[in-house]
Fold each of these.
Amino acid sequence: MRIKDFFRLAIKLFGLYALIFALFTVFPQMFAYVVSVLTGSTELYSILWTVGVGGALLSFYLFLVFQPDWTIRKLKLDKNFDSEQIEFGALDPKALLGIGIILIGGFIIIENVGLFLSNSFYFVKSIVATSDEVRMLSAHEYDTKRFVLNLLNIIIGYLLITNFRFLSNMLLSKKEEDQHV
């Protein structure tokens, strides 16, 4: 299997996983929020923002599923490998560990990007709010701890993806590498 084909498959699986995750967790929360806003006296921008974020997430996930080559080119995922092919029979432990690190980083980003965007909206909403009633957002709408945690998880996922080679070298000592050869 070529490295580009492997990453194409991995990105499509990420997109599919993220789409399923969003359909069962993020989108129902957004739908419930829109329904609660329609029954209350909240401004139209809240609904538009929620629908816009939902549409952007859906577009991003579908883009990952149907256009993985663009992501591979922009992140240069198929560069800096020793060979163009992945031989699963004689896979280098360092390469296998690197691929695992990339997959873990991708999963971390996918799981946290939707929640981060929702918490960002509620954060901005709490700053811009003018009346005391709107300022008192309930705990389920905005939580500083979740906002910071989601941001940190996105940063950690990005760092895992961009530094997979360094991490695989660090985690796999020379002694362990020689034993697998």
Note: Residues 3-180 form one domain.
Amino acid sequence: MWNRQVIFAMSLSTLLFASGCGGGGGGSTTVVSTDTFQLRTAYVNHLTATRSVPFTASGTIDGINVSGNGTVTEGALTSTTFELQGALQKVTAVTGTLNANGRTIPLSSSSTEFVDTNYNPLGSIGEEYEVVSSSVTIPATARVNSTGVWYTATTYTTSAKLTPTGTSSVSFALEPDTASTALLKIISVDKNTLGSTTFTNTVTFRMTPSGTLTRISETGVWPSGSFLTIVY
């Protein structure tokens, strides 16, 4: 799946040490490509590849200016079980440095995503335990301005699933970029158990017709006005 671990790692780390400290404050022309883009190939390639990608980050969380840098490292798919069924897992680790309130601390976290043998999403384990409740097979191909809902999931505090915390819905959009590329955006919308939006995350890739992806950026927005922007 399309991991958003960097956003969560930085935002949670900021909130952990910011309490009690003094807070801070603080276009290009696109072309609609007429090409057909291999969307499923891009997804499978992204899921099965191993890579380390550096990033920089900036934003404001609860009125505190945040910046940082680090590396996202994605491991290989390995066999496992999830929710009592055979599955494949992919571990993503985030390391780096976080700066806020005049302090610098190390950044370190990891999450695990689970898919079935056809690469359909099953869930994830990170700050929450997420179980996919419905999904569609991602389309084989798409053209610029194509959109669609990919899957929805229920989130819990732990794998015991005693306390649901809300839902997450993930969709995709293929947007204009150049005559030979498009921007693939993966949009996640989290809601609490009352149905109110608690977080929106958008991961942006540059995509070629053959399905090659280049990670560009990630933006997380909270209803309070807090935000984080990750640039790769």
Note: Confidence is low (pLDDT under 50) at residues 17-26.
Amino acid sequence: MKKSLLCLLLASLLALPVLADDEIRLPAPQKSGGMPLLEALNARKTSRRTTGEPPTLQQLADVLWAANGVTRADGKRTAPSAMNRQEIEIAVLTRDGLYEWDADDNELDRSDTTIDLSDQLNGASMMLIFTYDDDDQTPAYAQVDCGFVGQNVYLFCTSKGWNCVFLGSIDRAKLARALDCREGEVLYGMRIGIR
């Protein structure tokens, strides 16, 4: 009995995502399956009920790839961008901390911020934060490109049965300090609840 309980405990611990390292290599995203596109479009909705389970590394890899992942050897992405600038960057806030996603290497780099961002997460499974470098892009293009990325996330979450909400009301100043960027470079956020 004790041995089987110990095995069960060990198996459950191994199933938990470990997000404590400074650099986390994500698994390859799953690029097949899910709901047919027209069904996802029909079912797509906004839900502010984004509390839920913390994401696994596979779930993080999948949602980030769907958002703006690399699809071809030439670096093209799942979302279009004006003049192919691919300026949208994605940070991920979980209960374990803030991470910046490197799409080319499919890695999360842990932020060393000491700023408490729990009010931005607000109990969600995760929050995606969309930023861009305003030295390299016209703000109007970045806004549109961010919309493409956000729609990808909406359709992915719908396909998975997850709740999500695209947010304009975020604390841009606080997030900019945490991400070490200018306040105007923080575009939007998206809270996600895994059900």
Note: Helices lie at 2-15, 37-43, 57-68, 118-121, 139-160, 172-179.
